[in-house]
Write a structure and sequence with these properties.
Blueprint: H1 13-21, H2 27-33, H3 59-65, H4 74-78, H5 83-91, H6 93-102, H7 116-128, H8 132-153
Helix pairs in contact: 1-8, 5-6, 7-8
Length: about 170
């Protein structure tokens, strides 16, 4: 799925994820996204509109790519938003954000129920909200998911070792 042979020993994984939230696309990811390294078929184009399933990417691609997208820049991740989240947020942003702010399950996130679209929904909200509490909750979930995905994929070894790994209340 994701190239495991890139060398990023000059930055830690935490620094990599900060770059992702600061909209910096490093060369090794840009190359992987737009050629066969990423998923064996390259990164497909996003559909201009939502399909009959409310998705912008083919469902087979979404199933195949899974949580590997969690290590992509936040703008790329937001492209995976589904129609329900996009529409609800655009039509009633204030109430939608209040529901998210009140949602306490952020502390009990179960990562086996998160998929590419769920990550896209969170990234879309992150980019569109001005609420710092919502931004922080979403950022922690995405970074935790990315770290666990990178660990499972065996790519954490490609980064400079961390002196300490930030603690979160989340578990995979």
């Amino acid at each position: 799925m994701f190239p495991t042979n890139f060398n990023t020993k000059d930055i830690t994984f935490s620094e990599h994820m900060e770059n992702m939230f600061n909209c910096i696309l490093p060369d090794y990811l840009a190359e992987a996204m737009f050629n066969d390294q990423f998923n064996g078929h390259g990164f497909p184009s996003m559909k201009p509109d939502f399909d009959e399933n409310g998705l912008r990417f083919d469902v087979h691609f979404l199933n195949k790519i899974g949580l590997t997208i969690s290590i992509l820049p936040i703008q790329a991740l937001a492209q995976f938003v589904d129609y329900v989240t996009y529409s609800n947020y655009k039509n009633d942003q204030q109430n939608f954000e209040q529901e998210i702010a009140d949602f306490t399950a952020f502390q009990e996130t179960d990562f086996e129920h998160i998929n590419a679209t769920a990550l896209g929904n969170m990234a879309f909200i992150y980019l569109n909200t001005e609420n710092p509490l919502i931004k922080q909750k979403i950022k922690i979930i995405i970074i935790t998911c990315a770290r666990e995905t990178a660990r499972a994929m065996g790519i954490l070894k490609n980064f400079k070792p961390e002196l300490s790994i930030p603690k979160t209340d989340y578990k995979c």
